[in-house]
Design a protein that fits this description.
This protein is α+β, with helices and mostly antiparallel strands. It contains 7 helices and 8 strands, in the order βαβαβαβαβαββαβα. The protein has helices at 36-47, 73-79, 102-118, 138-143, 160-180, 205-209, 255-264, and strands at 21-28, 65-70, 91-98, 122-128, 146-153, 185-191, 194-199, 222-229. The N and C termini lie far apart (38 Å). The mean pLDDT is 87.
């Protein structure tokens, strides 16, 4: 099994009829001072949203939980010792989910590296995110991805929005290549500002699975959390904390209609 486990239509289930409702929360320091306490307060708030967290039929597998934080610059400067990070905002970090097949992982990483160069940016390095699958349910363990981070240096350090657009293009091209070549790949986030930690997890499992979040050096000025309650949509590692720039709450019951309207206006 892989982390990409959304089923096809069967029985009473149809992907065309999916909609969901979730719980959200934001904890922030108004002056923008980043601390580890804010990260932990956000995770505590996430756990208090357990009533908005769905469970699988085993009673253990979460529908999905996660949080968005600022890029923890001081933390990365301590742990990324194989390369030199430029100033804050002049590098981006991608949070990536890979299948456990090392050959496939290497193929995708090579293509992503190519897209970084093609977009005129610079690859700084790769880092495997330390994770602990032991507390997870059997289903979450069996489908857990390999989580890797890619660090990308901006070519133009004077235009942060232009760099964000470049990161977007790198992500979309890699996702499209993986899809066209039937490779399991997902980008949880790729930005010079924020990061997303998420998965097929219960609220309390987020900090247990992602060991970086436990480190006192890991700091952010805000924590935006999302606890998934999938009323009709099938849960998966990708669908936890579903947005890369903001999070939602409420029923998304016009998904197919929105997709059709977008396709109608593509030209």
């Amino acid at each position: 099994m892989t982390f990409h486990q959304i089923p096809t239509a069967q029985g009473l289930y149809s992907p065309q009829l999916e909609h969901d409702a979730c719980g959200i929360g934001l904890y922030a320091q108004l002056q923008g001072k980043a601390t580890h306490d804010i990260v932990m307060k956000g995770l505590e708030m996430l756990c208090r949203l357990d009533h908005r967290a769905g469970r699988g039929s085993d009673g253990k597998t979460g529908d999905g939980s996660g949080l968005m934080v600022q890029i923890p610059d001081a933390f990365f400067r301590d742990v990324c010792i194989d390369w030199t990070l430029p100033a804050v905002g002049q590098y981006g970090v991608g949070m990536l989910f890979f299948d456990r097949d090392e050959q496939v992982q290497q193929e995708i990483e090579n293509k992503l590296n190519d897209f970084i160069i093609a977009e005129g940016q610079e690859l700084l390095g790769w880092r495997t995110v330390p994770t602990n699958p032991e507390p997870l349910s059997d289903t979450a363990k069996e489908t857990a991805p390999v989580v890797r981070q890619v660090f990308i240096k901006a070519a133009n350090t004077n235009d942060s929005l232009a760099f964000e657009r470049k990161l977007y293009l790198i992500r979309k091209q890699t996702e499209l290549w993986a899809k066209n070549n039937n490779k399991d790949f997902y980008c949880a986030s790729m930005s010079s500002r924020t990061m997303v930690f998420k998965g097929l997890l219960t609220p309390e499992e987020v900090v247990e699975f992602y060991l970086d979040l436990q480190d006192e050096r890991f700091a952010s000025a805000f924590s935006m959390v999302h606890s998934r309650y999938s009323t009709n949509t099938f849960p998966s590692w990708e669908r936890a904390h579903p947005n890369r720039y903001i999070i939602h709450n409420g029923e998304i019951n016009t998904l197919r209609g929105n997709i059709n309207w977008m396709k109608a206006r593509e030209q």
